[in-house]
Write a structure and sequence with these properties.
Elements (H helix, E strand, L loop, with lengths): L1 H9 L8 E3 L6 E3 L17 H32 L11 H5 L3 H16 L3 H6 L4 E4 L9 E2 L2 E2 L1 H7 L5 E4 L1 H6 L6 E2 L12 E2 L5 E2 L1
Antiparallel strand pairs: 1-2, 3-6, 3-7, 4-5, 8-9
Helix pairs in contact: 2-4
This protein binds zinc ion.
Zinc ion binds next to helix 2.
Protein backbone atom coordinates (compact mmCIF):
# COMPACT_ATOMS: atom_id res chain seq x y z
CA UNK A 1 0.00 0.00 0.00
CA UNK A 2 2.61 2.53 1.13
CA UNK A 3 4.98 1.35 -1.56
CA UNK A 4 2.29 1.82 -4.17
CA UNK A 5 1.65 5.38 -3.03
CA UNK A 6 5.35 6.18 -3.08
CA UNK A 7 5.70 4.74 -6.55
CA UNK A 8 2.79 6.87 -7.62
CA UNK A 9 4.31 10.02 -6.11
CA UNK A 10 7.49 9.48 -8.08
CA UNK A 11 5.53 9.71 -11.28
CA UNK A 12 3.80 12.94 -10.33
CA UNK A 13 4.24 15.61 -12.96
CA UNK A 14 4.45 19.10 -11.59
CA UNK A 15 2.29 21.78 -13.08
CA UNK A 16 4.69 24.69 -13.28
CA UNK A 17 1.83 27.13 -13.54
CA UNK A 18 0.87 26.43 -9.91
CA UNK A 19 3.90 24.65 -8.47
CA UNK A 20 7.51 25.59 -8.05
CA UNK A 21 10.63 23.83 -6.78
CA UNK A 22 12.38 25.63 -3.94
CA UNK A 23 16.09 25.93 -4.75
CA UNK A 24 16.95 25.48 -1.07
CA UNK A 25 14.93 22.50 0.16
CA UNK A 26 14.39 21.23 -3.39
CA UNK A 27 10.78 20.32 -2.74
CA UNK A 28 7.93 21.12 -5.05
CA UNK A 29 5.38 23.35 -3.43
CA UNK A 30 2.28 25.21 -4.49
CA UNK A 31 3.36 28.70 -5.48
CA UNK A 32 0.34 30.20 -3.80
CA UNK A 33 1.07 30.40 -0.08
CA UNK A 34 4.65 29.10 -0.26
CA UNK A 35 6.57 31.65 -2.29
CA UNK A 36 6.71 35.42 -1.97
CA UNK A 37 6.78 37.82 -4.88
CA UNK A 38 9.49 40.21 -6.02
CA UNK A 39 8.40 43.74 -6.83
CA UNK A 40 8.88 42.75 -10.48
CA UNK A 41 6.00 40.31 -10.04
CA UNK A 42 8.26 37.25 -10.34
CA UNK A 43 8.05 34.69 -7.59
CA UNK A 44 10.94 34.18 -5.22
CA UNK A 45 12.96 30.98 -5.65
CA UNK A 46 13.21 30.13 -1.95
CA UNK A 47 10.09 29.02 -0.12
CA UNK A 48 8.75 30.74 3.01
CA UNK A 49 9.78 27.97 5.40
CA UNK A 50 13.38 27.97 4.10
CA UNK A 51 13.39 31.76 4.41
CA UNK A 52 12.28 31.67 8.03
CA UNK A 53 15.06 29.19 8.86
CA UNK A 54 17.58 31.53 7.18
CA UNK A 55 16.23 34.47 9.20
CA UNK A 56 16.59 32.50 12.42
CA UNK A 57 20.23 31.76 11.57
CA UNK A 58 20.81 35.47 10.93
CA UNK A 59 19.33 36.37 14.31
CA UNK A 60 21.52 33.74 16.04
CA UNK A 61 24.51 35.30 14.34
CA UNK A 62 23.32 38.73 15.39
CA UNK A 63 23.21 37.63 19.05
CA UNK A 64 26.80 36.41 18.78
CA UNK A 65 27.90 39.70 17.24
CA UNK A 66 26.26 41.63 20.06
CA UNK A 67 27.67 39.42 22.80
CA UNK A 68 31.11 39.81 21.26
CA UNK A 69 30.82 43.55 20.93
CA UNK A 70 29.64 44.13 24.47
CA UNK A 71 32.05 41.69 26.08
CA UNK A 72 34.92 43.42 24.28
CA UNK A 73 33.57 46.84 25.31
CA UNK A 74 33.49 45.92 28.96
CA UNK A 75 36.97 44.40 28.85
CA UNK A 76 38.33 47.56 27.21
CA UNK A 77 36.72 49.67 29.93
CA UNK A 78 38.15 47.39 32.58
CA UNK A 79 41.70 47.33 31.17
CA UNK A 80 41.74 50.91 29.92
CA UNK A 81 45.10 52.16 28.67
CA UNK A 82 46.68 48.82 29.59
CA UNK A 83 44.67 46.95 26.98
CA UNK A 84 47.08 44.99 24.74
CA UNK A 85 47.18 45.76 21.04
CA UNK A 86 44.86 43.54 18.99
CA UNK A 87 42.96 42.63 22.16
CA UNK A 88 39.57 42.61 20.45
CA UNK A 89 40.81 40.54 17.53
CA UNK A 90 42.13 37.94 20.00
CA UNK A 91 39.29 38.28 22.50
CA UNK A 92 38.67 34.55 22.77
CA UNK A 93 42.31 33.87 23.56
CA UNK A 94 42.33 36.39 26.42
CA UNK A 95 38.99 35.23 27.83
CA UNK A 96 39.88 31.56 27.49
CA UNK A 97 36.74 30.71 25.49
CA UNK A 98 35.01 31.67 22.27
CA UNK A 99 31.94 33.87 21.97
CA UNK A 100 30.10 30.79 20.73
CA UNK A 101 31.01 29.04 23.99
CA UNK A 102 29.82 32.10 25.95
CA UNK A 103 26.53 32.03 24.04
CA UNK A 104 26.01 28.30 24.69
CA UNK A 105 26.86 28.75 28.38
CA UNK A 106 24.41 31.65 28.83
CA UNK A 107 21.75 29.80 26.86
CA UNK A 108 22.03 26.58 28.87
CA UNK A 109 22.24 28.40 32.18
CA UNK A 110 19.15 30.53 31.49
CA UNK A 111 17.24 27.50 30.21
CA UNK A 112 17.97 25.65 33.46
CA UNK A 113 17.30 28.60 35.77
CA UNK A 114 14.26 30.20 34.14
CA UNK A 115 13.34 27.86 31.28
CA UNK A 116 13.68 30.81 28.96
CA UNK A 117 15.22 31.43 25.55
CA UNK A 118 18.39 33.53 25.67
CA UNK A 119 17.56 35.21 22.40
CA UNK A 120 14.13 36.35 23.59
CA UNK A 121 15.53 37.36 26.98
CA UNK A 122 18.31 39.49 25.54
CA UNK A 123 16.81 40.81 22.32
CA UNK A 124 13.27 41.43 23.56
CA UNK A 125 13.20 41.52 27.35
CA UNK A 126 16.27 43.54 28.18
CA UNK A 127 18.24 40.89 30.03
CA UNK A 128 21.80 41.79 30.95
CA UNK A 129 24.94 39.72 31.18
CA UNK A 130 25.85 39.83 34.83
CA UNK A 131 29.01 38.98 36.78
CA UNK A 132 27.86 36.89 39.75
CA UNK A 133 30.93 38.07 41.67
CA UNK A 134 30.94 41.72 40.58
CA UNK A 135 33.49 42.79 38.01
CA UNK A 136 34.81 45.65 40.15
CA UNK A 137 35.82 43.29 42.99
CA UNK A 138 38.48 41.67 40.81
CA UNK A 139 41.88 43.29 41.11
CA UNK A 140 42.80 42.84 37.48
CA UNK A 141 45.39 45.63 37.42
CA UNK A 142 48.37 45.32 39.71
CA UNK A 143 50.51 48.48 39.56
CA UNK A 144 49.67 48.90 35.91
CA UNK A 145 50.30 45.25 35.02
CA UNK A 146 47.39 43.06 34.02
CA UNK A 147 46.99 39.92 36.09
CA UNK A 148 45.56 37.61 33.42
CA UNK A 149 44.73 34.90 35.96
CA UNK A 150 42.48 37.35 37.83
CA UNK A 151 41.08 38.63 34.52
CA UNK A 152 40.11 35.09 33.49
CA UNK A 153 38.60 34.40 36.93
CA UNK A 154 36.52 37.55 36.54
CA UNK A 155 35.37 36.54 33.06
CA UNK A 156 35.03 32.81 33.81
CA UNK A 157 31.88 31.37 32.26
CA UNK A 158 30.87 30.15 35.71
CA UNK A 159 30.84 33.79 36.84
CA UNK A 160 28.54 34.97 34.03
CA UNK A 161 24.78 34.69 33.67
CA UNK A 162 21.99 36.50 31.89
CA UNK A 163 19.58 38.12 34.34
CA UNK A 164 16.62 40.45 33.97
CA UNK A 165 17.08 44.20 34.28
CA UNK A 166 14.91 44.14 37.43
CA UNK A 167 17.02 41.45 39.08
CA UNK A 168 20.12 43.35 38.04
CA UNK A 169 18.85 46.49 39.78
CA UNK A 170 17.91 44.66 42.97
CA UNK A 171 21.48 43.34 43.09
CA UNK A 172 22.48 46.84 44.18
CA UNK A 173 21.87 49.10 41.25
CA UNK A 174 24.92 47.93 39.37
CA UNK A 175 24.65 48.30 35.65
CA UNK A 176 25.48 45.18 33.74
CA UNK A 177 25.52 45.46 30.02
CA UNK A 178 22.46 45.68 27.91
CA UNK A 179 23.30 44.01 24.65
CA UNK A 180 20.25 45.47 22.92
CA UNK A 181 21.34 49.07 23.05
CA UNK A 182 24.28 49.17 20.66
CA UNK A 183 24.78 47.81 17.21
CA UNK A 184 27.51 45.22 17.17
CA UNK A 185 30.34 44.74 14.74
CA UNK A 186 32.50 47.81 14.95
CA UNK A 187 35.38 48.30 17.31
CA UNK A 188 33.94 49.37 20.67
CA UNK A 189 34.70 52.96 21.58
CA UNK A 190 32.83 53.70 24.76
CA UNK A 191 30.92 51.74 27.31
CA UNK A 192 29.14 52.13 30.60
CA UNK A 193 30.99 50.92 33.68
CA UNK A 194 29.33 49.08 36.52
CA UNK A 195 28.72 52.20 38.54
CA UNK A 196 26.88 53.75 35.63
CA UNK A 197 29.46 56.28 34.48
CA UNK A 198 30.57 56.41 30.89
CA UNK A 199 34.20 55.80 30.10
CA UNK A 200 35.88 56.35 26.80
ZN1 LIG B 1 12.28 25.50 0.65
Amino acid sequence: MNGAIRANLKKVRHDKRVEQKCIKCRSWKLIDGNFGKHSSGKHQVICYSCKSIANKDARDKDLRVRLRHHTASRCLTQLGEHTPEHFTANLGGYLGYSIQQLLVHLKDELRLREDKSLKVAIMKEGYHVDHKVPLHTFKVLNEGVIDWKVFQDCWALSNLSAISAEENLTKGGKVGFDVRTQEGGEEPQTDVTEDGTTNS
